[in-house]
RNA sequence: GGGAGCAUAGCUCAGUUGGUUUAGAGCAUCUGCCUUACAAGCAGAGGGUCGGGGGUUCGACUCCCUCUACUCCCACCA
């Protein structure tokens, strides 16, 4: 097989990916082998690949390929998520561009557009994952809204409702005015914001009938205007909500505001008279200690309203504009009203002052520019206490391991303070809630049934007293859809149809899955809830390990985002550098749980490594074998050494894999290939004059190459397949993907250590050459003492030296490697003065070292307390040091 | 406000139950090389008082306390 001079990733990658698909190497069916399963964190169906996906999916692919080569029946199940809010928003936007408003469409019409959009854009991301080399079982590609998944969601909803775990409740919820839907508490992200704190005047309303009487208490603060009218000052960040004020609240113990007790005050501009109520909730230290109470638009105010029986005035429309109930600014957007009302209050003399203020504002996780509005409405909730109880033990007991483990605390904290999950969304794109409302009299309690089908619903409705004769067309199905995560949490189960077909062969074989690779940002949204669903429906964990990846940032540490334009397009990167290079670049800098600071230079390093592999292969491939050639000593030794080193390294790699230290495993292999194999091994065995090679070395080298390629394959699947295919005559249908991963074997530590001495010696000799300006071509003579003779041929080969017998002349340069002494014969080529200086310096250092070691050894407490091995080590240091001193002194003497 | 994490070379990070002198790696830097696989390369070199302070110990990058800086998560202070 002819190889190009340069590695060309593009053609190689497409070729082998097609080959893998054609032979269905990614496909898995249950069999007798142990299973290894990963379910993909389903990307948004209309999403496109970004750097976070690259990181996440590269790691998954490494794990899957590694498991596959280790004899597991590996199954990586891909799929996409319908992403209710995000996708619906995209469709709404697209329709808006066509001049169509969502509210002018029926549900059916809207969904038709939505599905069209999904067909058009859906799954692009899966094609992009293929470019990365992902070895997913594409035959199993799923979608959270396809038939089996939807059916599972419905069944689970009905089941949980029947178990009494799902209920309908009137609650203060988080409202996204842009998407016009409620959000769960987890979908609200709080951001620090520079805002204003408006201090408003609330005049006392009843001063004429109920005069303000200063109590003359210490610390009392009265406000009186130039006309002698008393007023309270309320600090608020949201002046636009004053139309909803139904009380003002003070802390009964607040000395500043004692005089307000029992009074009524006037809401500025609005003119409504509201009572002053007392509650210990109010923070005496904040502002003036006077709190405006708007029960309809603030969670705390709602609670206050409940305890104090206050009226609730909802002044907002669902889209965030002011409603009729507000009386003022009707139809204007809340944010515009805030600016306007501030001006109007100022003009009316009702604004005491305005301060700069830092506060936290909740935004919608999906519409990040939209501040959420607390809103009172009736929604569907899932009781979480039960789920927290079943989801906590497996993580605390270690049945599930988090990598890194610090997330256990986060997980536990959340579960221990869990709130009920609001699962309904006012969206059409999603799983429609299987609840049916029955007709009721005006003002009566709502009546509904929950059922999988209209027929079931009708039967259930008819069982209710007074509804015996109800007809199907009188049942009104709930308009709302379920939170996307209500389908995602079933993913590891629903992918194997474990809800619809409990106990089927696939769910039994693939569940629990093995590893989950995801970001810590969805630990609550997804990870925790999958554990809940797993425990609830299969009485078993959904996975054994969770590998949390970090966030991909640019090299300045900024999060990658479209707005900043600091996110490279992964497909461009793949086109420029090759998928293997991108994978390697990403992995090199990603230890579990740490953020990844991405820089192109890492991908360049990946590309360079591909080049290195390619060229090493070309070198080996260029050799021809002379069956009669004898194996040189140096080659024999190098083969033996590398064989042992390979075993040792495989052991290290296995250890790294077992601890999910993926980047360490990769770096270990990287160095083995580049530093050990290329820089030392190949250089040692390279035929000197021509291309002829002895058969023993040649076949050993091919064997090493084979193993190295297999070791690298999970990380860099394409180039390893290309080279492995070229390494020997392969049959159609053969692949490196399905070869056995190299296994650790015993190795000779001493042999490896001796070779290290040889390497160090060679490096020293090269160093001497460089500093003395001696050409590498010029052979030098050396004399060695206390040197492992077995490795001398390698030193001779790589340092271009001859080993001399006997003594060196006076002008030799000596150095120590461990306790071995090497002297280079340099008659007439050296500066004796300089050498003397060097040796003196070395000698001084050795003496200092000796003193420190002896200091330790003469410390009785050290000798008494330290383990024997440590003491023995110190003694060895001492004797070695003495040897070195003797050797240096001998050299000095010879030089003089 | 509560909690967690991190602080080691110019940069990004290892350092796995405390025990090798001179604390490692990759990248970057510097020097010399177009040596017939590879200049996307080869051969070398320099670079750190392990954030500050205190403590435990024969011995601390490692364990404890404290301070400082940064990051993240959680929380209803208007």
What does this structure look like?
Helix content is 43%, strand content 17%. It is an alpha/beta fold and 896 residues long. A hairpin with a 6-residue loop joins strand 10 and strand 11 (273-278). Helix 2 (51-69) crosses helix 17. The longest helix has 28 residues, at 868-895. The radius of gyration is 38 Å and the shape is elongated. The two termini are 61 Å apart.
Name some characteristics of this structure.
896 residues; seven-stranded mixed β-sheet; 27 helices; elongated; RNA-binding
Give the helices and strands, then pairings.
Elements: H1 9-22, E1 35-39, H2 51-69, E2 73-77, E3 79-80, H3 84-97, H4 107-121, H5 124-131, E4 142-143, H6 147-162, E5 166-176, E6 181-183, E7 188-204, E8 231-236, E9 247-250, E10 264-266, E11 273-278, E12 290-293, H7 299-307, H8 334-347, E13 351-364, E14 373-382, H9 385-396, E15 401-403, H10 407-416, E16 421-422, E17 424-425, E18 435-438, E19 447-450, H11 454-462, E20 476-477, E21 481-482, H12 485-488, H13 491-494, H14 505-510, E22 515-518, H15 523-538, E23 545-548, E24 552-553, H16 570-577, H17 579-588, E25 596-597, H18 600-622, E26 624-625, H19 633-658, H20 662-685, E27 692-693, H21 695-712, H22 717-727, H23 749-772, E28 780-785, H24 792-799, E29 801-803, E30 812-817, E31 820-825, H25 832-858, H26 860-865, H27 868-895
Parallel strand pairs: 1-2, 3-4, 9-11, 15-23, 22-23, 24-25, 26-27, 28-29
Antiparallel strand pairs: 5-6, 5-14, 7-8, 7-10, 7-13, 9-12, 10-11, 14-16, 17-21, 18-19, 18-20, 28-31, 30-31
The chain binds one RNA strand of 78 nucleotides through strand 8, strand 12, helix 7, helix 10 and strand 25.
């Amino acid at each position: 097989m002819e190889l190009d001079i340069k590695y060309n990733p593009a053609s190689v990658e497409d070729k082998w990916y097609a080959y893998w698909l054609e032979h269905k190497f990614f496909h898995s069916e249950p069999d007798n082998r142990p299973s290894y399963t990963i379910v993909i964190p389903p990307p948004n169906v209309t999403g496109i690949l970004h750097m976070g996906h690259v990181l996440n999916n590269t790691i998954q692919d490494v794990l899957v390929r590694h498991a596959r080569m280790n004899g597991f029946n590996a199954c990586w199940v891909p799929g996409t998520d319908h992403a209710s809010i995000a996708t619906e928003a995209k469709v709404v936007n697209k329709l808006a561009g066509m001049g169509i408003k969502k509210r002018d469409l029926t549900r059916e019409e809207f969904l038709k557009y939505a599905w069209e959009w999904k067909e058009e854009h859906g799954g692009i991301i899966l094609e992009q994952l293929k470019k990365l080399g992902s070895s997913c079982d594409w035959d199993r590609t799923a979608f959270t809204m396809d038939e089996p998944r939807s059916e599972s969601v419905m069944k689970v909803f009905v089941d949980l409702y029947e178990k009494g775990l799902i209920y309908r409740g009137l609650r203060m919820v988080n409202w996204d005015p842009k998407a016009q839907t409620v959000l769960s508490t987890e979908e609200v992200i709080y951001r620090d914001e520079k805002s204003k704190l408006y201090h408003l005047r609330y005049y006392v309303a009843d001063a004429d009938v109920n005069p303000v009487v200063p109590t003359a208490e210490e610390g009392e603060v009265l406000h009186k205007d130039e006309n002698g009218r008393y007023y309270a000052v309320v600090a608020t960040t949201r002046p636009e909500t004053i139309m909803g004020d139904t009380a003002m609240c003070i802390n009964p113990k607040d000395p500043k505001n004692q005089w307000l007790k029992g009074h009524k005050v006037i809401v500025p501009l609005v003119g409504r008279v509201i009572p002053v109520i007392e509650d210990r909730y109010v923070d005496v230290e904040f502002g003036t200690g006077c709190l405006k109470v708007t029960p309809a638009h603030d969670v705390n105010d709602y609670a206050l309203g409940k305890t104090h029986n206050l009226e609730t005035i909802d002044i907002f429309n669902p889209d965030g504009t002011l409603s009729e109930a507000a009386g003022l600014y009707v139809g204007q957007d809340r944010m515009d009203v805030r600016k306007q009302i501030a001006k109007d209050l100022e003009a009316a003399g009702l604004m005491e002052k305005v301060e700069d203020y830092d506060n936290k504002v909740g935004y919608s996780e999906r519409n990040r520019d939209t501040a959420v509005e607390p809103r009172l409405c009736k929604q569907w909730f899932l009781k979480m206490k039960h789920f927290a109880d079943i989801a906590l033990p497996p993580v605390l007991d270690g049945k599930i391991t988090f990598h890194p483990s610090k997330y256990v605390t986060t997980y536990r904290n959340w579960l221990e303070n869990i709130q009920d999950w609001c699962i309904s969304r006012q969206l059409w794109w999603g799983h429609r809630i299987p609840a049916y409302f029955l007709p009721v009299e005006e003002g009566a309690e709502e009546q509904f049934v929950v059922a999988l089908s209209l027929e079931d619903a009708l039967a259930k409705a008819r069982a209710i007293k007074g509804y015996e004769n109800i007809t199907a067309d009188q049942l009104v199905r709930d308009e709302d859809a379920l939170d996307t995560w209500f389908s995602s949490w079933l993913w590891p189960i629903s992918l194997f149809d474990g809800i619809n077909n409990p106990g089927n062969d696939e769910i039994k074989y693939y569940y629990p899955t093995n590893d989950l690779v995801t970001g810590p940002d969805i630990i609550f949204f997804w990870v925790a809830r999958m554990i809940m669903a797993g425990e609830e429906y299969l009485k078993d964990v959904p996975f054994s390990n969770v590998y949390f990846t970090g966030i991909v940032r640019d090299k300045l540490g900024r999060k990658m985002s479209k707005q900043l334009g600091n996110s490279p397009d992964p497909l461009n990167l793949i086109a420029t550098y090759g998928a293997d290079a991108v994978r390697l670049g990403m992995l090199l800098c990603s230890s579990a749980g740490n953020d990844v600071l991405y820089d192109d230079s890492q991908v360049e390093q990946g590309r360079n490594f591909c080049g290195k592999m390619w060229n090493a292969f070309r070198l080996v491939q260029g050799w021809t074998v002379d069956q009669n050639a004898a194996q040189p000593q140096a080659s024999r030794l190098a083969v033996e050494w590398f064989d042992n080193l390979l075993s040792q390294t495989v052991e290290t790699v296995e250890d790294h894999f077992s601890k999910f230290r993926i980047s360490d495993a990769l770096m270990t292999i990287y160095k083995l290939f580049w530093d050990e194999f290329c820089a030392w091994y190949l250089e040692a065995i390279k035929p000197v004059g021509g291309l002829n090679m002895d058969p023993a070395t040649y076949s050993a080298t091919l064997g090493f190459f084979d193993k190295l390629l297999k070791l690298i394959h999970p990380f860099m699947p394409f180039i390893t397949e290309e080279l492995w295919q070229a390494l020997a005559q392969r049959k159609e249908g053969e692949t490196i993907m399905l070869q056995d991963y190299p296994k650790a074997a015993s190795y000779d530590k001493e042999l490896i250590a001796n070779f290290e001495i040889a390497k160090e010696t060679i490096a020293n000799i090269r160093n001497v050459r460089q500093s003395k300006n001696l050409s590498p071509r010029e052979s030098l003579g050396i004399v060695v003492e206390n040197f492992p003779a077995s490795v001398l041929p390698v030193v001779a080969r790589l340092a271009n030296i001859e080993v001399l017998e006997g003594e060196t002349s006076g002008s030799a340069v000596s150095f120590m490697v461990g306790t071995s002494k090497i002297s280079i014969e340099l008659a007439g080529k050296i500066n004796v003065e300089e050498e003397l200086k060097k040796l003196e310096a070395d000698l001084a250092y050795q003496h200092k070292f000796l003193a420190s070691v002896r200091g330790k050894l003469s410390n009785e407490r050290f000798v008494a307390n330290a383990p024997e091995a440590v003491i023995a080590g110190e003694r060895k240091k001492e004797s070695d040091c003495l040897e070195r001193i003797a050797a240096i002194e001998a050299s000095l003497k010879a030089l003089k």
